[in-house]
Amino acid sequence: MEVTREVLLSCLAVPRWADEVLAGRPYTNAAGVLAAAARASRDLTDKELVQALSGHPRIGEHGGAQSRNEQSGIDLAVDGTAARLAAGNAAYEERFNRVFIIRAAGRDGEEILSELERRLHNDDAAERAETIESLRQIALLRLEAALS
After folding, report:
1. What is the DSSP letter of 120?
2. Residue 143 per-residue DSSP state
3. C-alpha distances out from residue 124 to 83, 87, 102, 113, 145, Å
4. Per-residue pLDDT reduced to its tens digit, 76-122
5. Are 22 and 101 in contact (CB under 8 A)?
6. Smallest Cα–Cα separation from 133: which of 113, 110, 115?
7. Where would I find the H helices in the chain?
8. 45-75 burial string, b = 16+ CB within 10 Å, else e?
């Protein structure tokens, strides 16, 4: 099972993570690659967190093809969802000084808004951990799609 650095960086924009996954080669199957990717993404430095978030648009602001696909369950026209997401994103950025990130795949707007509201009450350490977990989930979903 071959995976490239370019593919890995499109899943999680953290060079150290990509290098760690590549260092485990050769992989005999996708499960091996995914397991290595999961292990390597458990802890991110502050610099890596900034790197990883740099490739993600705000929820509700569909960026590239991956983000548009992942956010496809959000109907921005329903019940003021677009305005509520914009307000929630602004409050989150004011509180934590970074973009709100969540695994949007498989979630609708109401679920994402509910999670955003809940996470606004986290302290910095808890929210950092949730952000890293969200990035890990997104990276693994993207990698799994790339390998299939």
Report:
1. T
2. H
3. 25, 20, 16, 19, 32
4. 888 899 999 999 999 999 999 999 999 999 999 999 999 999 999 99
5. no
6. 115
7. 5-11, 15-23, 30-40, 46-54, 65-70, 81-96, 109-119, 124-147
8. eeebbebbbebbebbbebeeebbeebbeebe
